[in-house]
Every structure is written in structure tokens, then in C-alpha cells.
Amino acid sequence: MRIVRLDNFITPCSGGLRTALRELGAGYAALGHEPVLVMRGAADHDEQTPQGRVITLRGPVLRRRYAAPGEVLIVHCGRLSVEKRPHRSIDALARLRAAGVPAVLVVAGDGPLRPRLERQAAGAALPVAFTGFIPGRTAVAALLATADVVLAPGPVETFGLAALEALASGTPVVVSGSGALPEVIGGAGVTVTGEDFAGGVLTVLGRPAAQRRAAARAHAERFGWPAAVRGFLAAHAVAARVETAEEAVR
Q1: What is the DSSP pairing of strand 173-176 with strand 190-192?
Q2: If you classify domain 62-228 with CATH, what class do you get?
Q3: Would the pLDDT of 244 be above 50?
């Protein structure tokens, strides 16, 4: 029988867990089974070992780059322009740090306000990392997925795709009560009235991590592109039409 095991969290320094997996795999193999272990690592690898087949898949390192163990990773993702109010994210970080929360902020994006925001963060000695524009969708998704909370403080969003992408990555979002975002995120995030985004972050962190991440992902699944296509067609009173093979060749 093939026995497939998926590691939940093995780090380069894991001792007991690695030992247990190794010995169990060797034991399964000795009894005639075909053990397979899938684990994360620095690079993709596939090898046969005394404990059976070990498949290593390259895992994301973004969180390790920005946050130490025990720190709260907050991400602001968007254009750094006036209408997005990115300074609110830095203000929220300052308030959280003042309240004793070990939070750090990653600002992903670029725009005309970046120099001013960098001065704001440096002047207050805040742990803010500015990544600039991230071109790859996979890299953006990995960053959003490794965050504890994503901030979307812009008050005039007509939809807010970045916030929805965060939910799809399993990360709850704190949004401004103005604009369309409260309707988009529903109960999968927190809506802030005024400037209390730090309070919104604390509300999110007060929820069990597994519960809030599952709720974020489940809510995002309601907004897939097929649903968007049907919605736009319905809004314009256009009936969906699927062309048959015979019609296509006429």
C-alpha cells in the first residue's frame, strides 16, 4: 500500500519531527508498504531513501524575509498615491507598536508618495519594508498568503481587487468603511470607520487564525471570474450564449 504523508511544518532546525517521520517511513517500508513523504524545502527534489520516497517542494521564503517568529506581519498592497491613503497603514503600525504589538509592515507597490512614506517610517523608526512594484502574480500571492493581515485603507475603492486577492490567499483584510470594499469583504475581514485601522487589526488578530483564514478563502470563492462574467452580462441584459460545434463551422 502507498502511504502518502504531507508535512505540516518542518524547518531546517526541526529535530524530533524529522526523526519521527524518518523512522515511521523506514518502518512502513520494512513492512512492505510504499511510503511517500512530501515536504517543503529550499529547492525541488525527488529521491528514494531508506524511509521511502521523499519529495521536496520549494516553499515560499517571503515571511522569513520580513518577519521574525512571533511578529505580526501586515501587508499594504497597492499604488502609493493620494487616493489610496497609504499613510494610514504606517499610522496603524505606529499605534500597534505603541500598544506593544510586535507588528511589522510590508508596503508592496510604488507611486508618487513613496519618498514621503519612506521618510514617515524612518522618522518614527518603524519596521517598514518597501518592496516597490512586484511584477509576478505568484510572488504577490505568496506575500499576501504569508501575511497575518492585509490593509486596504483607501476610501474610494469602486471594487478593490487587491483586497479580494488577499482573501483568496487566505488572509483577512481591514478596509475603509467608505467605498465598495465593505460589501466585497463581508464578514471575512473588518471594516473601519474613520482612522482606527490599528483597532481593525487587533479585531482580526483576536479571531482564531485557522478560522479567520478559512473564512477569508471561502468568501473569496464567491467572486470567481465566471461569476463576474455572468454578473456583467446580467447587468447589461445580455443572455449567455454557448455556441455549438455545428454553429461554429457554419
Answers
A1: parallel
A2: alpha beta
A3: no
